[in-house]
Amino acid sequence: MKNVTDSFVSLGQWPSAGSFGFNTDILATNLINLSVVLGVLIFFGKGVCASCLDNRKQRILKTIKNSEELREGAIEQLEKARTRLRKVEIEADQFRVNGYSEIEREKLNLIDSTYKTLEQLENYKNETINFEQQKASNQVRQRVFQQALQGALGTLNSCLNSELHLRTISANIGILGAMKQITD
């Protein structure tokens, strides 16, 4: 450490002119050389560093500007997407409401057509019942008539003897002959 302070002291003791020599103190010469190199670098490198820093600053500003433009574009796209989403939601609600009302209409139409079909089936049932009742009544009448006719024939056959039977046949033949003359 004593050498460093001695070198600074010896700087102040340099002769002003006439002698030129080598300074053998390594620490003193390195500091002088470093200060000269730094001075030259600062003097000449100041413009280069300033231009590098300006270029870097311009690139950073340009990147920030591009980022801001991209952000604004993204915000615009987001707003457009939100607007489209709102429109789609409104349309979906309309479809939902229309679908529900359409379902209700179809339901009412189905219920009405079912009631009409049931009414028609009830009418057909009643008509079929009436027809079957008439058919059954006719069958009963025919059976009663046949039984009555068979009973009357049985009674006639049992009451008629052969002479009465011949007279009835002769009377009927006479009636048929008279009818024939009238028609001629």
From TrEMBL:
Principal location listed in the UniProt entry: membrane
Keywords annotated in UniProt: ATP synthesis, CF(0), Chloroplast, Coiled coil, Hydrogen ion transport, Ion transport, Membrane, Plastid, Thylakoid, Transmembrane, Transmembrane helix, Transport
UniProt membrane topology term: Single-pass membrane protein
Pfam assignment, any one: ATP-synt_B
GO cellular component: chloroplast thylakoid membrane; proton-transporting ATP synthase complex
Coiled coil: 64-98
InterPro entries assigned to the protein according to its UniProt record, in alphabetical order: ATP_synth_b/b'su_bac/chlpt (IPR002146)
Transmembrane segment boundaries: 31-53
Keyword Membrane on entry: yes
Localization terms from the record: Membrane; Plastid, Chloroplast thylakoid membrane
Single GO MF descriptor: proton-transporting ATP synthase activity, rotational mechanism
Other observations noted: In plastids the F-type ATPase is also known as CF(1)CF(0).
HAMAP family to which the protein is assigned, alphabetical: ATP_synth_b_bprime
Role: Component of the F(0) channel, it forms part of the peripheral stalk, linking F(1) to F(0). F(1)F(0) ATP synthase produces ATP from ADP in the presence of a proton or sodium gradient. F-type ATPases consist of two structural domains, F(1) containing the extramembraneous catalytic core and F(0) containing the membrane proton channel, linked together by a central stalk and a peripheral stalk. During catalysis, ATP synthesis in the catalytic domain of F(1) is coupled via a rotary mechanism of the central stalk subunits to proton translocation.
The protein's assembly and partners: F-type ATPases have 2 components, F(1) - the catalytic core - and F(0) - the membrane proton channel. F(1) has five subunits: alpha(3), beta(3), gamma(1), delta(1), epsilon(1). F(0) has four main subunits: a(1), b(1), b'(1) and c(10-14). The alpha and beta chains form an alternating ring which encloses part of the gamma chain. F(1) is attached to F(0) by a central stalk formed by the gamma and epsilon chains, while a peripheral stalk is formed by the delta, b and b' chains.
Recorded family membership: Belongs to the ATPase B chain family.
Name of the featured protein: ATP synthase subunit b, chloroplastic
Organism: Chrysanthemum vestitum
